Amino acid sequence: MGVIKAAIGDGALTFLWVLCSSCIGVSTYLVATTFGVVNEMGSLFITTLVVFLIFLVFGFLGDALGGAAFNPTANAAFYAAGLGHDSLVSAALRCPAQVAGAVAGSLAIMELMPKQYHHMLEGPALKVDVQAGAIAEGVLTFIITFMVFVIVLRGPKSALLKNWLLTLVTVPLVVAGSNYTGPSMNPANVVPTNQLWTLPCISKLKMTAAKKCTFSSISVLEKRQVKKGANRMCHLSF
């Protein structure tokens, strides 16, 4: 029953994550328009604040749902590191639940978002060939996974500071990968795009990168018990 509850929690949280993260571009546009922000740095700052607030809210939601996560690479990385409470069975069940939640979230946002903003809902999409896109996603996933381990295991105890550091790590990587895939370091977020044929290749490479980073991280960082809900902090991305 615990495994089923974990899968349901992951599916629900991923549904909400895709629903909310899809609105980051629209939120940035509306805030920038309201305050008359016209330069790119100002818009980037607004986006950073929006992402921080979303991370903070989803951190509390993850705890409320018993440590639910919305990123399959988080489950893979923390399971490989021997951290958290996942078993092989629960890890295998949570990933499909997250993908199902992502599909439901993408369908919901297309129905709920006003049509004049639909052009801002374009999800991650390949802007280069498949090999280059997969490599870019693998490298970005490796970097973000390593940084999350550093922040979670060696970072501040304050959830506020942890989420702020995660935001400062996430946004530059999103910008860095924007010319390749969007990017999406969260395999569940690839599902809502119109390029489903890229999902197996990119998702497999993401998982491989996350696992390789796990073994690299635990050889560099002191392995310690991660408090309840820490695995939800391995988010990413858009």
TrEMBL record:
Cited InterPro entries: Aquaporin-like, MIP, SIP1-1/2-like
This protein's GO cellular component annotations are:
membrane
Major site of localization recorded for this protein: membrane
Record keywords, A-Z? Membrane, Repeat, Transmembrane, Transmembrane helix, Transport
Membrane topology of the entry: Multi-pass membrane protein
What is a GO molecular function of this protein?
water channel activity
User: Which Gene3D superfamilies does UniProt cross-reference here?
Assistant: Glycerol uptake facilitator protein
Q: Which residues form the signal peptide?
A: none
Q: Where in the cell is it found?
A: Membrane
Q: Which family does it belong to?
A: Belongs to the MIP/aquaporin (TC 1.A.8) family. SIP (TC 1.A.8.10) subfamily.
Q: What is this protein called?
A: Aquaporin SIP1-2 isoform X1
Protein's gene: LOC107765466
